[in-house]
Amino acid sequence: MSTITLDITNSLKGSGNRGGIEKKAVNKTASELGRYNQALWKNPYGFMELPESRFQFDIIKKLAGRSKRQKIKNLVILGIGGSSLGTETIFDALLHPFHNYGSDIRKGLPQYFILDNIDPHTINRIFDIVRKDLEHTLLVVISKSGETPETISQFMIFKKLMEKSKGFRERIILITDQEKGILKQIADKEGYGVLNVPEGIGGRFSVLTPVGLFPSAVMGIDIDDIAQGALDMSKHIRKAKYTDNMAIALASILYLMDKSGRNIHVIMPYCGRLSGFADWFRQLEAESLGKNSFGPTPTKAMGVTDQHSQLQLYVDGPRDKCIMLLYSARERRPIPNTFPYIDSLDYLAKKDLNELFYAEFLGTSLSLIEAGTPSFTVLLNDINAYSLGALFFLYEMAIAYLGHLYTINPFDQPGVELGKIYTKAIMGKAGLEKQRAKADRTLSAPKTVITF
To answer: What total of structural domains would you count in the chain?
Structure first.
């Protein structure tokens, strides 16, 4: 059985779906990307080489092995955006959904805390948890530039805490640029273990680097399987004709949906284990393509939960959405005939929850067809390290192709950088006095407010 299947039937006009796009338009766009694909692999983007190079895998495994010998009980990851979402996706998909709830569930693995925000309430609560067992806490700090204010401020707080435990330097790992940056300076001065983000790899494309793979190795996840899935997907994308190329088809559909007015791309997993993947994709598409007043707007829904909320909008609201359904469900749970005296429940009794889950997925698909809301489906035979690696690489390549179609650079983020500059200026960073003055003028302007 196939690992991943892409079904674009319901995104095309026909079969009663009046909201789809013409197949000839898809073929034309795919043909253009086919020609681009041949040239691209002769001079690939940095992330495209990661599955084969397996960058720093030896060091990753060595440091992960050391953490096991240290009997780490708390894994604390400091990072934001691309420095955390990939790891969250992997953990959501491959670890027990209630991993942190008890030692019998963790089976010797540490509990983990991914601090992707600086809300003091959350920071203080984690602070209180790990301070009780510092000698068994591993701190992983992730920032390629080393200057991300959120991550550096977290590090400043937690490093002071870690200093209270013996041998703390061996339980701090920094993941940063190979050549420059504040974190590299700190590592050189204080002697922490260091892993690197390869040159030319931005945060949102870094999941297949030590950024996503070192924390995974610490948690006992097979990173070789992740890399192999990505590598096999890369071979498919490189060699497959444009008519049979999954990444080219995915990019073509998303691009044409945007251009036809379906500029809101809803990713809706029918699989709780892919909830984190939906969050990862939102950043990948938004930050890569939202430029020059163009770009689709990605948003997230969860099946079946959001059938009872957002589906109303998708079926009966503005015709500006394309729905990307992800489905995977292998486990079973029989539904017993608990209330035999209620005839209206006969359709559920003695069936399986897996059957109901799939029926809900089909029900959503059919309601979207009837409403004229285009959709397509990504089916995963199973969720494991291999299929997850393949899925990551598939979507990264689709975004690279979309960058070509939009004629933009999908690897920069000027809007994000501007916000960082203003944050640093407000906090008083030297050299940003002009930005601070501009911020002060804007923030001190008269406001229109309503209070309660």
So the answer is: 2
